[in-house]
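hey m, so remember when u said the tokens were messed up on ur end? i reran from scratch. heres the input so u can diff it against urs
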Amino acid sequence: MLLERTGFFSSVHSFDTEKEVIDFFCSDVREPLFFFTDYLVPGTNVIHLIADIRRFKPSVKIVVVGGITNVPHIRQLLAHNVDGVLSKMDGTEEVINCIHAIRRNQPYLAPSIARMLEEVAPAPVNFTPREMEILTCIAQGASTSGIADRLNITTSTIFTHRKNMLAKSAVGSMTELLAFAAREGLLCTCEY
């Protein structure tokens, strides 16, 4: 495995399920941690997984690797404060550059990913990572109480986030917000 050959890590683990990932991050693991994940993981919404890992281990360094060519999806990852984004086409040198940058507390975008972002006008709305989580849950049909249970927040907090998203997107209803989010490519369709 490439990560083992870099010599940067004392141990490298691989996981088959989302539960194994969460169990690992809930255990008493040593810092600093790097978590490399594919953007498309069958049966997993990577955005939710990233948010869960951040809640359990806020200091973990998260790198997403994928064949991502959809700029809104890249922006969604960046909105969730991933530390690095690599293309599956990147070689060993880019992986090493990414690790070095993150160790210096600098976010890293593979040059091919950075070029894609430069070529497309910036998204007009910047929702917070929590707002994006709530928006994704709403788009998946979750109720306010269901979202509150999943994210471990109060329903009044959800209402506040919804109000803020409506204001930021300059729309008047949740239906309009969902249409806006779909039109702008803000909703992740990566769950199988």
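this time it looks ok to me. The mean pLDDT is 84. if urs says something different then somethings off w ur setup not the seq
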